[in-house]
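User: quick one - fold this with zinc ion bound?
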Amino acid sequence: MRSIVRLAVASILPILLCVSGCGVSDEAPEPVVPADDYSGRTTYIEVELTADLSGLTDNQRAMLPLLIEASRTMENAFWRQAWGDRDALLASIEDEETRRFAQINYGPWDRLDDNRPFMDGIGDKPRGVQLYPQDMTVEEFEGAVAASADDGAALKSLYTVIRRDAGGLFAVPYSEVYAEELGRAADLLEQAAALAEDDGFREYLKLRATAMRTDDYRASDMAWMDMKDNTVDVVIGPIESYEDQLFGYKASFEGYVLIKDTAWSDRLSRYAAMLPGLQEGLPVEDAYKRESPGTDSDLNAYDAIFYAGDCNAGAKTIAINLPNDEQVQLAKGTRRLQLKNTMRAKFDNILVPLAEILIAPDQREKVRFEAFFGNTMFHEVAHGLGIKNTLDGSGTVRQALKDHASALEEGKADILGLYMVTQLIENGEDTGATLEEHYATFLASIFRSVRFGASSAHGKANMIRFNFFNERGAFSRDEEGFYRVNSDQMRDATNALAEKILTLQGNGDYDGVASLVAELGVVHDTLGADLDRLAGAGIPVDIVFRQGEDVLGL
Ligand code: ZN
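Assistant: Sure. Structure tokens for the protein plus zinc ion:
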């Protein structure tokens, strides 16, 4: 392993959020030479992405290069969404480290440092990236929605790009804009389907290929939910909407190739049955917990062998909770995939050294992988808890909270995950760690995630939680700069924040979320200085993969 970028991390800037009505920045500038100043760049450590393939059949092994190649086409499509012409940008960069850094970030903005441009002459990252006209205002978009015949369905669709001509704004389906990438991916998925031994997986691959050509992903999402026994899996297509920071409407392209870890999966399966009881026990008024969590959901551990596109940009995803389609969720729940090898790599390379600097010596040994794994597992389970539609019946929480929806949903999952751990341990369940270990590891994880910066939904949620916990004494900081969990206050703060978030979601209270973010989504001086101590210690912020056929021996 070697450090990709060895220089220090800059201080994380406070959030500057435009609540509503702001325009987006001017069109993207021409590619330029690298900036002279390399300091302040986010540090990554490179790790090999491997897994034990010895249990696979010949057909399963033969599928892997096809699935990896299909994922590579998502890489191309995501570059077009996030920046535009990848090859032109990379060719314009003479310095090798800067070029590598642009590849890690899928563009010239440092994703883990509030999208700060790291090349000269690059302006701010457009909030709507390449998914909307760069000079489009929110008012113009909302005007087009009001004037549309379909209530804005095409304009707000997850799977359209917004363009403008003399007649105004209009939506173009992904299957047209990204026809080349999606067509090739669909062909490769169909070739893989021909090799699939598992009936459910074969059906999913075929339907996913069809979805890429038709922009209708629901049938393939349903089929993906129906798969239970396949060892090889692929998550591929336009999926998460974090990259659209203007509205959160548009899905970005990504691909993962995965191998199921059956031993861990068996251990996880028993928690799924506990969801209804946990929903009932949520610390909030009944109206906010009246929806039933899907009980058909499953939770499994995987080793990832390939990441592409959105999930590989900046911070690497360690857990997946899909599909996002609320209709599929209501019908079938969600699947939660824990990416164990990625989690272990982050734990060993980031969290352990971080805890040595920031966590009090007597609580440091409580920062354990088993607790980290559990916290992450429960975060994913907790996405299924709470409320998906606003109480007034006007639509989904996501629609109501727009650009704040993702950050609040991540904050909800973190806090309800901690609520679940507390409940289960108090009920005598074995979660693999003690409550003190879960809490100490959770606190160490907040520092890790705050370093993702305000541009990430996870980073933003962690800043809010850090400040909320701090105000309520959930942890204390001693004169030497070491942090220590106060378990009783941590439990109380967890319940209080859970109630606050669930209420904001159920009310679809956009303004309430905006003021929460404005009030608590900031890094204060003391925390900023502590984060700089981490940077000075050379702890990487995240990992980057050496991956593909060669690493896997395929
Ligand atoms: Zn999440």
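One thing worth noting: Residues 1-39 have pLDDT under 50 and may be disordered.
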